[in-house]
Design goal:
The chain is an alpha/beta fold and about 425 residues long. It has 3 domains: about 5-135; about 135-200; about 205-350, Trna Endonuclease, Chain: A, domain 1 (3-Layer(aba) Sandwich). The chain has helices spanning about 5-45, 55-75, 80-90, 110-115, 135-145, 150-160, 165-175, 175-180, 185-195, 225-235, 235-245, 290-305, 325-335, 350-360, 385-400, 410-425; strands spanning about 210, 250-255, 255-260, 260-265, 270, 275-285, 315-325, 340-345.
Length: about 425
C-alpha cells in the first residue's frame, strides 16, 4: 500500500503524540511511586516519635507493618523495603511539602510539571533535595548510599542534568567521579562542585585524574599497545563519552596532520560544544616522557592555527598515560599548562581507601572540608543487628574514612580519672 506524503506526515504526528503520551505516563507513574515511598517513610518516622532510635520498638513496628501490607498487597513491603522508605524520608526531608499522608494532595501544577518532565522551578536550575521527575526510585536508592550530603547533592544535580540512568549513576559513584574532579580544584572549587554540580567554564573543568576505563575490559599489562586501547575506546565510544563528561562530541581518530611532508596522527579528536574548542587526546602506554608532551604541544598549536574556526577557544590537549612525573609535566609545559593536561588511566575501578588517601595528599594545603566528611549512614543495615552494634559499625566506617583515632567513652573516662587522681596527689 502506497503512503501519500500527507498521510506520512499525519502518521508521524500521531506517532509523536503516542510516544510522548507513553513517556509522560511512565514519568507520572514513576513520580507517584517516589512520592508514595517518601510518604510511607514519613509515616513510619512519625510513628517512631520523630525518628527516635528505639531499636526494639522500630524493629517490631516494621515487622508488623511488613506482615500486614504483604498480606494485602503482595511483594514489595518487606522489612528491608520499609527501612528504605524510612531512610528516604530522613535523607530527603524536604522532598515534598510536609503534611499528613491522609490529607496529601499534590498540587495540580506540580503534577503537570512532572508529566512534562520539568521541575516546578526554573528549568535550568536543579535544586537537590526536592522532587524531580527525572529521578526514579532506583535513582534515589542509589543516591542514599552516599553518606556525605554535599557529595550526594552533586550526584543528584549531575544525574538530572546529564540524564543518567540509574545504572550510569551507580557507575559514576563507584568510580568516585566527585573525588576525581575535586583533585584539580581548590577549596572554593570543591564547595562549588558540591553545591552547583560541574560547571564547565575553563579547560581545567573538564579534566579528571585518573580516567577510569574499566568498561574496556582490558588487563593491566605492559604488553598492551596504544592501538589496542584506541580500538577498544572506539568500540565503547558511548561509555567513553560518559567517562569524559558532558559536552564532548566525537570528531575522528588518527586524523592526519601534514607539516612540510611529515605526517602526524593524533589518536582521538573531539569538539567540546560548551567550551567551544577542539580536544585532542593521545594515548600513551607506560610512563609519560617529555617527548610525548612536546608532540602534544605540536598538535595543540596546529589545531589552534590551522583547524580552529573564528570564535573557537584555544585547543585542549589531553595525554592519557599509565604513569606520569608531575615535575616533568610542569617544567615542559610552562605557560601551556592551561591548555595541555596529563592524566593517568586505569582499567579497574579504584578502591575507596586508595582514592581517599591520594586525594588527601594532594589537598594537604587546604583546610579540611568538614562538610564533606561522611556523616552517620542513612542506609539501613540488617534488622537482626542490635542498635549498639549498628552504631559501632557506623563509627568504624567514619573512622576509616576520616582517619580519626578511636576515642571510646570508656577510654575518655579512664583518662579523666587518672587526671583527677594525679591532681589529688599533687595537692
Amino acid at each position: 500500500m502506497t503512503t501519500l506524503p500527507a498521510q506520512a506526515e499525519l502518521l508521524a504526528r500521531i506517532r509523536h503524540i503516542w510516544e510522548s503520551a507513553r513517556t509522560q505516563a511512565a514519568r507520572s507513574v514513576n513520580t507517584a511511586h517516589v512520592c508514595a515511598n517518601w510518604l510511607i517513610g514519613q509515616q513510619i518516622v512519625e510513628a517512631e516519635q520523630g525518628g527516635a532510635k528505639r531499636a526494639a520498638y522500630g524493629k517490631a513496628l516494621l515487622k508488623a507493618l511488613s506482615e500486614q501490607l504483604s498480606a494485602e498487597y503482595g511483594a514489595g513491603f518487606s522489612v528491608s523495603a520499609l527501612q528504605y522508605t524510612r531512610s528516604f524520608f530522613l535523607g530527603y526531608p524536604q522532598l515534598l511539602a510536609k503534611q499528613h499522608a491522609v490529607r496529601v494532595v499534590l498540587d495540580v501544577q506540580q503534577i503537570q510539571h512532572a508529566v512534562r518532565g520539568e521541575s516546578p522551578g526554573a528549568r535550568d536550575v536543579v535544586q537537590p533535595g526536592v522532587l524531580n521527575p527525572s529521578l526514579s526510585w532506583t535513582h534515589y536508592r542509589t543516591l542514599l548510599k552516599e553518606e556525605r550530603q554535599p557529595v550526594r547533592d552533586f550526584y543528584e544535580i549531575e544525574s538530572v542534568r546529564n540524564g543518567w540512568s540509574a545504572r550510569q549513576l551507580e557507575r559514576q559513584m563507584h568510580s568516585f567521579l566527585f573525588e576525581r574532579l575535586a583533585k584539580s580544584r581548590d577549596k572554593q572549587g570543591v564547595l562549588a562542585l558540591a553545591n552547583e554540580g560541574q560547571a564547565l567554564n575553563r579547560a581545567q573543568d573538564v579534566i579528571k585524574d585518573p580516567y577510569v576505563l574499566e568498561f574496556l575490559d582490558l588487563p593491566e599489562s605492559h604488553r598492551l599497545v596504544e592501538s589496542r586501547i584506541e580500538e577498544a575506546l572506539i568500540n565503547q565510544l558511548q561509555a567513553f563519552l560518559l567517562e569524559l563528561g558532558s559536552g564532548f562530541a566525537f570528531v575522528g581518530r588518527q586524523r592526519r596532520l601534514t607539516l612540510d611532508g611529515d605526517h602526524f596522527y593524533p589518536d582521538l579528536v573531539f569538539y567540546h560544544v560548551k567550551l567551544k574548542c577542539y580536544v585532542v587526546i593521545d594515548l600513551k602506554v607506560g610512563k609519560l616522557t617529555h617527548g610525548d608532551l612536546g608532540q602534544m604541544q605540536l598538535y595543540v598549536n596546529y589545531y589552534d592555527r590551522e583547524v580552529a574556526a573564528k570564535g573557537d577557544n584555544p585547543t585542549i590537549g589531553l595525554l592519557l598515560c599509565s604513569e606520569k612525573n608531575d615535575a616533568v609535566v610542569r617544567y615542559v609545559l610552562g605557560d601551556k599548562s592551561e591548555q595541555i593536561f596529563a592524566s593517568r588511566y586505569q582499567f579497574a575501578l579504584p578502591s575507596e581507601d586508595d582514592l581517599r588517601a591520594e586525594i588527601r595528599r594532594e589537598m594537604e594545603q587546604f583546610q579540611p572540608l568538614d562538610s564533606l566528611e561522611p556523616q552517620e549512614p542513612l542506609q539501613p543495615l540488617a534488622p537482626s543487628k542490635p542498635l549498639e552494634q549498628r552504631e559501632e559499625t557506623s563509627a568504624k566506617v567514619q573512622r576509616a574514612a576520616t582517619g580519626k583515632p578511636k576515642t571510646p567513652a570508656t577510654q575518655t573516662t579512664k583518662s579523666r580519672s587518672k587526671s583527677t587522681a594525679a591532681k589529688g596527689a599533687q595537692k
